[in-house]
Structure formats: structure tokens, C-alpha cells
């Protein structure tokens, strides 16, 4: 079924037309004064929303198109300092974390070839939750390219906040797909941040456990992961219990906040703010990656919480107020009219703009008609709240106790240390040419559109002949600390046999009540998969794109020292922790 709204293009329709009694939002026309607010960069890979997982699949990239239409419709593009189309990630960039065989498979498999590749499809956990669809690999490269570009810009210090709603695919593993996720753009972006940032805090408010990111950094003390999710042991992915707190050097650097069905705004915000404030105080991150999965909203097709868009956005606002460099990505979210509203509202929160409750008119009005074109429709109260004040207090007290282990932990670099990659530079002589290339490293992943397009010709403003060639980073790919690329699969850093990864299918098709674009049919419930006990990939990039601007290292910031800090944590090599994973 094709919606009527698809018959016309976004750019062919006026943004603001009379909707009678519903009124219309007024576009924001003032430009923000430079420096008065954080610099916000917004990444939208052109065409990313046109991909399609399949008729009955709940993951709809079209939600990205809706989000973008609302963001532009509200005139938020006038509040955002930088809007980027972005080059897609390269295969080498994906293999900074993922196994070569897996990426090679993704690059080759198509709906036409999948019958010949059935065994590999099973090996790499594709097929059901993670179907093979047209241009799958391009889709992965697009959303990952945007997260990497955002991370680079944050590392370069040329933006304060980077937004990529197309990213946030937190379930993907090193060597296999999981839960609608193929490539883990978050892990790759964090690896990029670690080249400059001593400590990265990852926060995940998707209703599902952020297992892929947790797993990647489970043994690292430089990345602290905090996931708020529904946990029953049965609910996908089946992991994320309160006492899963990291391993080895990473012990205590992983927090899980297991919640039950129906949690409301007040309870969620209370536990979120308490845990995040305590975590930031204890861990002192130098940058934050925030995954804003919108399936934690009330009325989500796959979710079971009762959060309003305002409360979801308040989590974003709370994190923003710590004024740390922040990469904000999307994630889950399966009632797409609410996903797009939520991420639009959160864009406004991040740029510090107040937007009216009346949605702007777009060609996608049909999605919002039943809720009177409101940005904040009532979403709460649909599911009984199984949480209690006492159960939540037990969680926050337990987490506060866990965070005590962080205070003074000898492995944590608590000083502000210049996050350089001197260790890499010592390993190799760079030519002048290479060094010149390095200067543009931080900008290599994106292309600034100097002329922000008018709202009603948004796509016309994207330069179709955008200079992809010059955007491709020519930075050398070197192997971390002299290692050759390994093709072995990662090892599980946890006890075996606890059913990592494929615990449950992410969705069942038998509760199909969605309002989405083309999916109103009902199919049989999905089979649940057997938990897999074989080793899951830990983050040990076999190769890293090691390029850096030496000049940028000259001013490492106040209080910095390139030497070891008093704790003995040697920071110049951002990948040092990876060696600890070898043994
Ligand atoms: Zn989710």
C-alpha cells in the first residue's frame, strides 16, 4: 500500500498551509547568536530513510524521513549550526570493530543471492529479525558514516553536540547481526572518540538492553556503559541484569538498570537522574554518547513502558546540562509517528529552542492527524506499572554502592589527560603529505553545506554532486600496535552458557497494531531462538584508522599532561586497553 503522502515529494509541498482549527506552528526565524548556545551539528545521510526492511518488519527507516520533515518543518534547521549530508563509512572503517568475514558477507549478500548464501545468513544471524533487504550494506554504511563523522567532529572540538538519528543500532555484535542491527555504529563512534577522549560514558534509554555496546567494552575501564531497559530475562535480548557490571579491567565500568513494564515519567526520571548524576560524578567522562531509542515511549509497538515524549526528552536535557561533548543517536522505536515526534522534540532540546505543541504541516500530516497534530500526544497509562518506589530505590542504592568501587580505582585515569594518540605517532614516521591529510582528519567524515537550504526546498539544497571523492578520508589505516588484522572471532568475556545475544527475537508479529506506512497485516509469531553460548565478540579492533592531527595535540587543554597519571594509567595510547583483552 502506498500512502498518498508518498505521491508527492517533501520539497514539492508547502510547509505551512492552513489546517483550519488545528492551527499551524510558526517557523522559527531568528538565527542563534554564535557562542550563546552549544554548537550543534546534525547529520542526515541523504536517502537513509528510503530503505525498507520488509513489509511486515517493525523497523521502518521511514521514521527518519518523518523526523527530518518535522525538524525542518519547525525551522530547527535555522537553529542548528551545521547540517551535514555525510559520506558513507568505508569497509575499513566498519572493520575497525567488525570481523572482516562478516562485513564482507554484508557487502555481498542481496535478496537475489540469499538463497545461495543460506548457510552464511544463519552464521551471521541474519534472516528473521535481521532480514536481507535491498541496499542493506549501503544502509549500514550510511548510518555508520554519520555517527563516525559526528564523533570526529566532537574530537576535533568543532562541535559540542552531534546528532545522528539514523544511528544507535546498539545490538549489533562484532561478528553477527542482532535485533534489527547489522553494524554497531555506536561502538565504532566510541572507538573514534577514544582516540582523543580518555573516558567515554555511554547512556542507553532504549527499552532494550544495549547489549552490543556493553559487550564491546565489557572489559574496558575507559568506556562506562549505563543501560536503562526492561529486564525480565525473557525480554529481548535477555541480558542486562543489575549485577552485570563488567569484567577484568572493566569490572565496575558497566551499569545496568533493569526495569519492569509500565514505568511512568516520574519514576523513570527519578531513577535516571539519580543514576546518571552519580555515574558522571564517579566516572568523570570527557564525552558522552547517548542512545535515544524511542521504543521506551508509551504506546510503542514493541515496548511496554509509559514514558511521554516530554520525559524522554527530559533525559536528553538532563544529560545535555552536564555540558560535555555529546554524540546523540537514535535506536529503537516502532510507532513511527511517535518516534519522529520524540526525536524532533529532542532536537529542539539539544539546540535550546522552544517549539510549539502544534506540529508544522508537512506532506506526512496523515501520520499525525489522529493525535490532532500535537507534538506531545498522551502516551501514558496504557500498561500497568509493575515497578514500585521500593524496587527502584533498591536499584539506585545498589548502583550507588557499585559506583563506590570506581572512586579511586587505580585503573581509572581521573585527571584531565590530553587525549592524544602519541603512541601511534611514535610507531611510524609520517610524511609531510600524510600529516597534511591528518590535519583534516576530524573533518574527513563530513561535508559542510554552507548554504543551509530553505525549508521548502530542503532536498534541492543537498548538492547531488557533493564531492564524495574529496570527502573520503585518505587517512592511512594502520594496525593497532603493530598487530596484523585478525580474523578470529571475539571471545566471550563472560562466563559461557548464559545465553548472550540471541536470547529472544526482538519482536513478534502477533501484536501488530501499528499505524505505520505499509504494514497492517498479521503474521505468525516468530520462533524464539536458542540462546547461543559460543563466544561473542569483544571489542578488539583488528585495525584502526590511525590518523591524527599532530598540530591539534599542541594544546591539550588545561591541566593536561601527556605522561602517565598518578594512577599509572597510560593514556597516550587510546587502544592500550585492547591489549589487556588479549590475555
Ligand atoms: Zn529497542
TrEMBL record:
Enzyme type, top EC level: hydrolase
Gene3D superfamilies per the UniProt record, alphabetical: Histone deacetylase domain (3.40.800.20)
Acidic residues bias (residue ranges): 509-520
EC number: 3.5.1.98
Compartments it resides in: Nucleus
InterPro entries reported in the protein's UniProt record: HDAC_I/II, HDACs, His_deacetylse_dom, His_deacetylse_dom_sf, Ureohydrolase_dom_sf
Domain Histone deacetylase: 57-349
Start-end of Basic residues biased regions: 486-505, 526-539
Region Disordered, residue ranges: 476-583
Gene Ontology cellular component list: Rpd3L-Expanded complex; Set3 complex
Family according to the record: Belongs to the histone deacetylase family. HD Type 1 subfamily.
Name of the molecule in the record: histone deacetylase
Organism for this UniProt entry: Favolaschia claudopus
Amino acid at each position: 500500500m502506498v500512502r498518498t503522502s508518498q505521491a508527492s515529494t517533501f520539497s514539492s509541498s508547502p510547509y505551512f498551509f492552513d489546517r483550519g482549527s488545528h492551527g499551524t506552528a510558526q517557523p522559527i526565524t531568528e538565527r542563534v547568536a554564535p557562542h550563546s548556545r552549544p554548537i550543534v551539528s546534525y547529520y542526515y545521510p541523504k536517502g537513509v530513510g528510503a530503505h525498507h526492511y520488509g513489509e511486515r518488519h517493525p523497523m521502518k527507516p521511514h521514521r527518519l524521513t518523518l523526523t527530518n520533515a518535522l525538524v525542518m518543518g519547525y525551522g530547527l534547521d535555522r537553529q542548528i549550526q551545521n547540517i551535514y549530508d555525510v559520506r558513507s563509512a568505508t569497509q575499513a572503517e566498519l572493520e575497525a570493530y567488525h570481523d572482516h568475514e562478516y562485513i564482507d558477507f554484508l557487502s555481498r549478500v542481496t535478496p537475489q543471492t540469499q538463497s545461495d548464501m543460506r548457510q552464511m545468513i544463519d552464521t551471521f544471524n541474519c534472516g528473521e529479525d535481521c532480514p536481507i533487504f535491498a541496499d542493506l550494506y549501503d544502509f549500514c554504511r550510511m548510518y555508520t558514516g554519520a555517527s563516525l563523522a559526528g564523533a570526529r567532529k566532537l574530537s576535533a572540538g568543532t562541535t559540542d553536540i552531534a546528532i545522528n538519528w539514523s544511528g544507535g543500532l546498539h545490538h549489533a555484535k562484532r561478528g553477527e547481526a542482532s535485533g534489527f542491527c547489522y553494524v554497531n555504529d555506536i561502538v565504532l563512534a566510541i572507538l573514534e572518540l577514544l582516540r582523543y577522549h580518555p573516558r567515554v560514558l555511554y547512556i542507553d534509554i532504549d527499552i532494550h538492553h544495549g547489549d552490543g555496546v556493553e559487550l564491546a567494552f565489557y572489559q574496558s575501564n575507559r568506556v562506562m556503559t549505563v543501560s536503562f531497559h526492561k529486564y525480565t530475562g525473557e525480554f529481548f535480548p535477555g541480558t542486562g541484569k543489575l549485577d552485570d557490571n563488567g569484567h577484568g579491567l572493566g569490572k565496575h565500568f558497566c551499569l545496568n538498570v533493569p526495569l519492569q513494564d509500565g514505568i511512568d515519567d516520574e519514576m523513570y526520571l527519578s531513577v535516571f537522574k539519580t543514576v546518571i548524576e552519580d555515574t558522571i560524578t564517579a566516572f568523570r567522562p570527557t564525552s558522552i554518547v547517548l542512545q535515544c531509542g524511542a521504543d521506551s515511549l508509551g504506546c510503542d509497538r514493541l515496548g511496554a513502558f509509559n514514558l511521554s515524549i516530554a520525559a524522554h526528552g527530559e533525559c536528553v536535557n538532563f544529560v545535555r546540562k552536564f555540558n560535555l561533548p555529546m554524540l546523540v543517536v537514535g535506536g529503537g522505536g516502532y510507532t513511527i509517528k511517535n518516534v519522529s515526534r520524540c526525536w524532533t522534540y529532542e532536537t529542539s532540546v539539544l539546540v535550546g529552542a522552544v517549539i510549539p505543541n502544534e506540529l508544522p504541516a508537512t506532506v506526512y500530516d496523515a501520520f499525525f492527524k489522529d493525535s490532532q497534530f500535537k507534538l506531545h500526544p498522551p502516551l501514558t497509562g496504557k500498561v500497568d506499572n509493575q515497578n514500585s518506589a521500593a524496587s527502584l530505590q533498591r536499584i539506585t542504592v545498589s548502583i550507588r554502592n557499585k559506583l563506590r568501587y570506581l572512586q579511586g580505582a587505580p585503573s581509572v585515569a581521573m585527571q584531565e589527560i590530553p587525549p592524544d594518540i602519541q603512541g601511534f605517532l611514535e610507531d611510524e614516521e609520517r610524511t609531510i603529505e600524510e600529516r597534511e591529510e591528518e590535519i583534516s582528519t576530524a573533518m574527513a567524515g563530513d561535508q559542510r553545506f554552507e548554504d543551509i537550504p530553505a525549508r521548502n526546498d530542503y532536498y534541492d539544497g543537498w548538492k547531488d554532486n557533493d564531492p564524495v571523492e574529496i570527502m573520503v578520508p585518505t587517512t592511512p589505516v594502520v594496525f593497532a600496535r603493530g598487530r596484523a588484522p585478525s580474523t578470529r572471532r571475539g571471545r566471550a568475556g563472560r562466563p559461557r552458557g548464559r545465553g548472550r545475544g540471541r536470547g529472544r527475537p526482538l519482536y513478534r508479529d502477533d501484536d501488530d497494531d501499528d499505524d505505520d506506512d505499509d504494514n497492517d497485516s498479521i503474521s505468525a509469531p516468530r520462533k524464539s531462538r536458542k540462546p547461543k553460548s559460543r563466544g561473542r565478540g569483544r571489542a578488539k579492533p583488528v585495525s584502526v584508522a590511525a590518523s591524527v592531527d599532530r598540530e591539534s595535540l599542541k594544546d591539550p587543554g588545561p591541566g593536561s599532561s601527556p605522561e602517565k597519571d598518578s594512577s599509572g594509567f597510560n593514556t597516550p595510547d587510546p587502544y592500550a586497553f585492547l591489549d589487556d583483552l588479549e590475555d
